[in-house]
Amino acid sequence: LGDLGRDDEALVLERHIYARRVTMLGASHERTILSGMNVAISLSGLELWDEALPFARDRLLPVAIRSLGLDHNLTLKLNLIQAQALMTTPERTRDDLCFDAAST
Fold this sequence. Notes:
The protein is mostly helical. It is built from five helices and no strands. Helix 3 packs antiparallel against helix 4.
């Protein structure tokens, strides 16, 4: 749907898929994290920074670090999504730029 310019509809479906995977597989399953990453990408694409940044930084990234490790491909991609959201978020603060991976 996103490729057809129906980004709002794609986001609704991606949220649904993510919620189902959390229920069925658990939040720390690799496929669940991948589904969450798709939600974060869609939120960023729609410039919904107030949702995209906390979702990637506070919800997905800590789980990915704990369950997959710092060097896993999905963890690295989530770091990239977070960085891109921070670069384009006009209201960002210095505190937003600081993420303590050791605390996860």
